[in-house]
Amino acid sequence: MAQNMNQFTTDEYVLAYHGPLLYEARILLAENWNESNTLLGTVGPHYFIHYKGWKQTWDEWVPEQRLLKLNDAGLAKRRQLLEQQTKKNRPATASTSTPTTGKGKEKGSVKKETGKKRARDSMVDTEADYLKRPEVKIVIPDLLKLQLVDDWENVTKHNQLVSLPRQPNVRELLDEYRQYVLATKKSQDRSPRATALLSEIISGITLYFDKALGNNLLYRFERAQYVEQKRANPDKPMSEIYGAEHLLRLFVNFGPFIAYTNIDPESLNILREYINDIMK
Description:
alpha+beta, SH3 type barrels, Enzyme I, Chain A, domain 2, 2 domains, five-stranded antiparallel β-sheet, 5 strands, 12% strand, transcription regulation, MRG, MRG_C_sf
């Protein structure tokens, strides 16, 4: 399609919405999607972007509405969002009156400047918190690492795609693991909370897979096949079509994905233990 439909261009630096904030990013690819080739269910200009300073696992396709020009207006919007997020994250403080004497005005001015500096610092801290959250360590066994390499070569070098639908599919594989844990002493070896969370975690992984597949887990040569499956099965989740190969790709990327959720530390450790156990 005509490239001039796009407001942004390849290799352009932009500001991209990610959660409540704007981050600097570079456009790696620019495409126009229609109903026959969309990956995200949306049509029009879309861009594959890399967030500056972030790992490649965060590279993603975004619609044009998620981007702003990297100019004075965009930077002003970025500062505004940072200020709003800072106010949400920090408790309100009582206001104090400013003396009207000359010396009082001077002190008030100093306090005002100090307050501005603290606000700027807090905005930087807020963005830094988003960027520096620790990743969840997922241990990939050596055998599965080799499988990932073979999978990558088959798709990207030999144009060999897996036949779909897979049997067993992702949903079946995860449910089989859940039943295995509950039927063996593995459930007895875990804490009551871990056992109680098992079904919820399995459902969460399945949901993550359905959300992440089209955006983060496909190689370029697999996109047409994905579009065909979405068109042929509009009401069926992709976790009932794709199988172990793509589930493994999710687990490889799961560390940075899950680090950006609000899950509590105990549940996070339980989730990590289950994922590591699945891959044994």
